[in-house]
Amino acid sequence: YHLKLDHPEWLLGDESMKTDIRTSASALYWSALDYGVSQVRDDRLWWIRNTAQSYDLDGIDLNFFRMPYYFRPGAERDGIPIMTELISTARRIVDEASVRRGRPLLLGVRTPGTVETCMALGLDVETWLEEGLVDRLLIGGGYVPLTNPAEELVQLGHRHDVPVYPCINGGAPTQGTDAEMRAAASNILWAGADGIYLWNYQY
Predict the structure, then answer these.
(1) How far is CA 89 from CA 57, 79, 123, 128, in A?
(2) How far apart are CA 107 and CA 122, in angstroms?
(3) In this predicted model, what pLDDT tens digit does every residue of 86-139 receive, in sequence order?
(4) Are strands 59-63 and 136-139 parallel, antiparallel or unpaired?
(5) Is the model's pTM score more than 0.85?
(6) Going by C-beta distance under 8 Å and a sequence separation of 6 or more, which residues neighbour residue 16?
(7) Is residue 38 a contact partner of residue 86, using CB atoms and an 8 Å limit?
(8) 94 against 182, higher pLDDT
(9) Range 14-33 average pLDDT
């Protein structure tokens, strides 16, 4: 990506950290962009704005689960207001697009499965919900749908009238049979979720 090639100093690490992706998280971490850099945030917002203006979509989801590295080690808590401002600006972008189109463009976020984990990464989901910044909440990666404590974020979302959709990952080995899929779905619905977010079903 041009931003990474032109500004390697905006990455969270350097190529000396590059390892086999199957054995070390640093294989992903080192090349992640540092959201503490304003130009990185501007780049992310450009993509949101360009998408909102270019396509007749029903909504845009921001995936904060897939590669959850946003700040340098130890700077995550300082990054909380930075990320909240990012989401607030994204909200303004989709609202402006909604006015132009004459119909709503929704903003969703996909986050890790607990409030504690989100905060540890710099993601204050509770504030996002309290301030009405998101329209739907997608939870987790769906790798452990039988044990993920979805009820915490489900209850938090419902407290602010935001629907919540925990994830089932179609690529995870634990969802191989109809019975396992029904068990995972049952667990999610027991938690009070509004529906189920299916991921990796191309596999």
Answers:
(1) 19, 15, 15, 12
(2) 19
(3) 999 999 999 999 999 999 999 999 999 999 999 999 999 999 999 999 999 999
(4) unpaired
(5) yes
(6) 30
(7) no
(8) 94
(9) 79
Which residue type is seen at 79? G
Q: Give the number of C-alpha atoms closer than 13 A to the C-alpha of residue 134, restricted to the C-beta side.
A: 30
145: nearest Cα among 200, 106, 108, 107: 200
Average pLDDT along the chain: 91
**Residue recorded with tokens 């396992």:** 180
Closest by alpha carbon to 135, among 113, 179, 165? 165
**Residue recorded with tokens 């990952």:** 169
CA distance 134 to 107: 5
- Residues constituting the chain: 203
Residue showing tokens 């950290």: 17
CA-closest candidate to residue 115, choices 107, 126, 129, 127? 126
Q: How far is CA 188 from CA 5, 16, 102, 138, in A?
A: 41, 41, 34, 12
Starting from the edge strand earliest in sequence, which strands make up the sheet with 59-63, in order? Answer: 59-63, 106-111, 136-139, 164-169, 197-199
Over residues 134-179, the pLDDT tens digits come to 999 999 988 888 888 899 999 999 999 999 999 998 766 555 678 8
